[in-house]
Amino acid sequence: RTAATATPTATPGDVAARATAGFRQRYGVQPAGRWAAPGRVNLIGEHTDYNDGFVLPFALPLRTVVAAAPRDDERWTVWSELSSDPVEFGPAEVDEPGRVTGWAAYVAGVVWSLRAAGQAVPGARLAVASDVPVGSGLSSSAAVEAAVLAALVELGGLDLPTDRWPRLAQRAENGYVGAPTGIMDQSAVIRGRAGHALFLDCRSEEVEQIPFDLDSAGLAVLVVDSRAPHRHADGEYAARRASCEEAARILGVPALRDVTVAELDAALGKLPDGETRRRVRHVVTENQRVLDAVELLRAGRVRDTGPLLTASHASMRDDFEITVPEVDTAVDAALAAGAYGARMTGGGFGGCVLALVDADRAPAVADAVTTAYAERGFAAPGTLTVLPADGAARLG
Ligand code: GAF
């Protein structure tokens, strides 16, 4: 299954039933339990997490479910509805990052991360089903990591409070899969709460649940899957991160988080080239936009966050240079159709756009984006309206 449209009609029960049925069919017994974790969108704060900065994501109502049971030996068998054959591995494959590849690497990575943290990980059989579309920038990988982590922690009776989970799941991705991502996605899918956006300080890992009550404001977040083919996203992500780290080194600060908007002009003057200056300007102004958005939400002024979202998009487009024509088209069309604000969400070079809209205008804004796509000859986008949902949990 490729980056399909998220299925708005799917209920959490469906995906849990698929995981359970897959488990029974594959292993011939009932699972001991089922654990779910959602995808995420980031309301604002892009490429700030690995700069020790601020992010404001929320968990999606689309979930990945892992049905699991312990086994007697120290081996792990994983089946996913994405592929017919299960993958099996033991300590030898787990302890050598990169040995398990493809989607199962996220599972092996979690086992590796837990073992590296000194935890006695129980052998297990697992079956994975998901409504989080793969490859759309909605953190389907973090959802798998979090659901597997939740399952293994409980099956093994591991003494691991949930506030340690995001770092462990991030290490799976950095150290085993080999993607140099920050801590935002794992934090959102583990610590997200229904009706709230998660204000995370990526340096201290302190979180604050910020009320994000779209419903009572008559608002909705429309998510547009740009369906843009990912163009060298991994290499570009790593290049952006390297550029930020080099800039921090030149400026003599631990991370770009330590440069404030008031200090920006002076900092830019010390940087060697226009490209580095643009990267730094994005990160510094984006951190401030997160803080401003949090202030507005605390004051119940949800609609007024719109211009910050749109400014964030312009900064990603012009300064961080991580957007592509499909996402720019979606943002422009959503704004022209009356969205209060719109921006690309996630790492960039494709993925999804979110637009803050009046709930009753969501279908018209979605239509406007679809029309704009057709006019430019792009493949039709996927569209979905979402509300903030809960993070990882055991299902009843
Ligand atoms: C991806 C990464 F996984 C996150 O850590 C974050 O850096 C994001 O891109 C950009 O904000 O989702």
TrEMBL record:
GO terms for molecular function: ATP binding; galactokinase activity; magnesium ion binding. Its EC number is 2.7.1.6. GO terms for cellular component: cytosol. It catalyses: alpha-D-galactose + ATP = alpha-D-galactose 1-phosphate + ADP + H(+). Residues 1-17 are annotated as: Disordered. The gene is galK. The active site is at residue 185. This is Galactokinase. It is found in: Cytoplasm. PROSITE patterns: GALACTOKINASE (PS00106), GHMP_KINASES_ATP (PS00627). Catalyzes the transfer of the gamma-phosphate of ATP to D-galactose to form alpha-D-galactose-1-phosphate (Gal-1-P). It comes from Micromonospora narathiwatensis. The lineage of its organism: Bacteria, Bacillati, Actinomycetota, Actinomycetes, Micromonosporales. The record marks 40 as: Transition state stabilizer. InterPro entries: Galactokinase (IPR000705), Galactokinase_bac (IPR022963), Galactokinase_CS (IPR019741), GalKase_N (IPR019539), GHMP_kinase_C_dom (IPR013750), GHMP_kinase_C_sf (IPR036554), GHMP_kinase_N_dom (IPR006204), GHMP_knse_ATP-bd_CS (IPR006203).
